[in-house]
Amino acid sequence: MKLGVFTALLSQMPLKDVLAKLKAAGLDSVELGTGNYPGDAHCKLSMLEDAAALKTFKQTVADSGLTISALSCHGNSLHPNPAIAKEMSETNRKTILLAEELGVSTVIDFSGCPGDQPGAKAPNWVTCPWPPEYMDILKWQWDEVVTPFWIERAKFAKDHGVKVAIEMHPGFVAYSPETMLKLRSIAGDSIGCNYDPSHMFWQGIDPIAAIRVLGDAIFHVHAKDTQMYPANLSKTGVLDTKPYTDEPNRGWIFRTCGFGHGAEWWKEFVSTLRMFGYDGTLSIEHEDSLLSPEEGLRKASDFLKEIVIREAPTAAWWV
Question: From which domain of life does this come (predicted)?
């Protein structure tokens, strides 16, 4: 496996400085945002129309000694506002084309969430099967919006030699292993997941057990932790809508790796990933509101260096 970083947390620094910093820290790869929610501080889609800029970018990355694990354009291409949907979908489409140009195999996005009917103004994430109209909404979303978009986009990605890794996240139609695999069964094997265990923890899903469910649908992995607060959960439940910065009153918050679960848990996590065929990058994502990006990155990197399995297994005497 490789250890990398989603560079959105260093968006205030120029790409060349980011690469030098991460190489000096002993990391292997970078995940770069191309727009939508992560922004495009380090990877501009305009390079598709600028051969000189593309050449310079490729050389900058090559000179750093790091590789690109994925291009990320997390957004909502199914947004009921047509202008928003068009912009985010176009960012996804161009990111796939740029990934092809760069020889990057994986593009990361969200599955998206439509409104509740044609002409809706805002996304509507259905969380329960009753009253019965909720099931009507969900059926319409999947049949009329999710299915046609992702069948077309999965084919486009496959035609360009790229896989799309959907990050399971509540608020979007694919938020759990079951809904992720439903999307994959509809759109085909060029659709898989960017596996972020932090989003499993707070839904009450065992992230290690879920690896066994997802299997070869795991295309990329985020390294991010979650800390649960049982003292608050009895009041808030897991669907806690308070700001992430209201840490004393939330039922859970995102944490830097090692601050939610210890080394024993993370060793089992990476071992199970390898057991089920994943030997790619663990990409550190910083969303810990109690630590600065600089400290969060340093602590996560130091912690995971002792855990990530970097060497391929060799045949043993008993085989």
Answer: Bacteria
